[in-house]
Amino acid sequence: MATILKCKMCGGDIEVNEDMSVGTCIYCGSTMTLPRIDSDKKARLFNMANQYRLNNEFDKAYEAYKNIVSEDEQEAEAYWGMILSEYGVEYVEDPKTKRRIPTCHRTLAKPVKSSVNYERAYEYADAERRMMYSDEADVINDLQKKILAVSSSIEPYDVFICYKETDDDTKERTQDSVIAQDIYNELEKQGLKTFFAKISLESILGKDYEPHIYAALHSAKVMLVVTTSASHCKAVWVKNEWSRYLGFMEEDASKTLIPVYKDMSPYELPDEIAKYQAQDMSKIGAIQDLAAGVKKLCGRTITQANNETINMLLRDKAEREEEKVREKIEEEKKRKKKKKRIKAAIISISIVVVLAFCGIVLYKPIYYICTLDSQDDEIFEEHYGYVSESIFNRFLSKSDRYRKGMLDFKKETKNSNRFSKNKVQTILNEEVFPYCDISIISDSDKYWIARSLWKLEDFDKSMYFYKSINRDGLSAHERIALDDDVQRKGYFTEQ
After folding, report:
1. Is residue 144 domain-shared with residue 166, that is, in the same domain?
2. pLDDT grade for 425, boundaries at 50, 70 and 90
């Protein structure tokens, strides 16, 4: 037997059977999840809950869905209805596509999928409904993120004025709105940033109201609920605002709600707000008294908030500075370690170079000592195991003189135009020959000496050096020059 359910998107009638979990509305063409309808009572409860939500009476809708859950705790659609009520979801027609798309009249920081109601809906739903719940939850989350992104950029408010703007019967401005504006003007004079929808939302499109309303509700330290009748105070959008603010008050104890009434009894106020200290606007000077009290509340709370903010900023700054100091210390440690490593490497390389240099430099002097005066048995041990320091220094000095003499000799003989026979002879006689054995003179030096001696016409000594030359020890250029000398001078003719 078919049962009539109200479409949760447009309110149209949908015929459903007990075994249907998904249906399509013939009026708006929307495909939607459906509850398990096993009784007329359950159908009536769902229709009532959906109607509340369609009227944007989200608190009533939530309680209605909650009643369904109390009778059937495994009804997934009831949990999903509670989610739609929590987030104030209304399905509006897209003028371009004519499809029903969700909009949010309430903003919550928590994602839909983290909600207990969503977990229950997902647990008790079949596969098809689970997929649809998941997709729609993602859409709602995206809407919430956009709202939160916009609201975060809005300057915070000190006071939120909640009131009914238009009379439902006459469609004219209410007395509530007039009183609210007078209060708004006075609060602004006192330097308090006040949210008053008629002015604060004047330049905002209707579809963009929610981010601004959410930002104002979230930031305001005081809410004034202005009303002249019980019906106005319980009007859908008025109740939507003050009920949401009560939720914020549960999270932030510094927030305050003040009912402001006129031409009615405070006992006519809704039970939820009747317990708060109310302000009678019929008294003389009521607006000024109210403004002074609100300023005092905001002044106290704003100062506290500012102090907290300043302290937080100071702590943050101190932490950043400490972090910078720590980073500097670490960098300095790394730099010192690197410097030490480089220094150690340089020292190691220097030691190696010095040792290598000493090995090269000291080898020849020691060799000279061992060759020049090898006959002096009293100076050296049998296998030249050691040399006394004084003897070593003396012979080292001699070898240095030989080296200097060879340098001077080469300098004098290199350029034939500057060749000075006397000077060359002096160098050879006094600075070279007395201090060296011919066996330690290189073949190249021997060649230079032999040529110079020939020029000095000391033919015997010249021939002596020529004959001692090993051709393998000469450069290619020197070999050619030696061959030329042999042909020209003919001292090897006997060979």
Report:
1. no
2. low
